[in-house]
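User: Could you check the structure of this?
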Amino acid sequence: MTNTLPQTHSALNKTIKGYEYSKELETCVDTTYTFTDLEKQVMDLFPIDWYTTLEENDFGLDDPSEWLLDWSDVQPLLKVLDITQNQLKGVVGSLANKGAIEIEERGQTKAEKRMFGQDLYWLSSRCFKSLITKEVA
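Assistant: Sure, the predicted structure tokens are below.
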């Protein structure tokens, strides 16, 4: 991996509000998380600068192509960050586990993905709301 990572949007430095199922409590609970440096690189592929000009009720109302990424959109990070494909898959998986992104799987095998297209990634509504929240001084 390179020593100096490309700059990312400052909104990605925020603490993000999440929601996950607690096995102990057997219910969903509120959580918070931050992004690692590599997760920020993936998240920066979304148009964060544009998102921060929106309001909460704007979530997902515009052209879907602005809100979606697929594996081919993420692939250039392999060279930029000097990481392996498996490491990049791990970063995307970590974002999904945190609840920052949602993934629509389009197939399990390479052949199915060729037929149905690549998996699609988009921001979760909770992550979006955390990113657009204006900082209070």
